[in-house]
Amino acid sequence: MLDTAFTLLGSAVTWLELIAFFLALANIACNVFEIHWGWPLTIIASALYAWLFYASKLYGEAGVNLFFVVTAFWGWWQWLRGHRAGSDAALRIEHMDARGWRWCFAAYVVLWLLCALLLRSVTDSDVPWADGFVTAGSVVGTVLLARKLIENWPLWLLVNAASIALFAYKGLQLTVLLYVIFFVLALWGWHGWKQRMDVAPKQGKAT
Question: What is the pLDDT of residues 153-193, one digit of tens each?
Fold first, then answer.
């Protein structure tokens, strides 16, 4: 799996990266259209990317992809059976309220600091702060996505932009291309979710 499939822009692309690339694309496409089968695709793609990033010494990214594997089971359940507090109705796309924004921001900052300090102290990562920034944002974004909060999309735009720079620095050219596509899909997902939210019955804001 770590053998070279082809060379892209002077960097070797392994079969592992190639397979994970296509599974991740299918996963995001399902998320954009609110298709719950994106979650099992997340499990497989994230396990492969955890392997790839570990081999590339991107330990924060490897760790967050293992987190994706675990939380994808929760996200799948949320999309199939989840509901808002105080309601038995199925999850619908909603905005966060002010309290949710505060928790989101605080969680991102705290996770970033913890991830970066952990990477600096226990790994040989040469990009602990950048890796930690992407890792923290990915954790928060996954939780918002699982709860169908539309703010997951602008957060993914930030995370994807940072990821593009990080993976370019590490020479993972196919993954750079993947995250450029992710960035475009996040714009598409944000627009599509907003349209569906506008035509759905109003339930107010969620935390």
Answer: 999 999 999 999 998 998 888 788 889 998 999 999 999 99
Give yes or no for a contact between 163 and 141, defined as CB atoms under 8 angstroms apart. no
Q: Count CB atoms within 10 A of the CB of residue 156.
A: 26
Is 88 exposed, middle or buried (CB count within 10 Å of its CB: 0-12, 13-18, 19+)?
exposed
Q: What is the DSSP string of 73-129?
A: HHHHHHHHH-B-TT--SBP--B-B-HHHHHHHHHHHHHHHHHHHHHHHHHS--S-HH
3-state secondary structure of 57: coil
Query: Which residue ranges make up each domain of the chain?
Result: 4-199
Cα 22 to its chain centre, rounded Å, is: 15
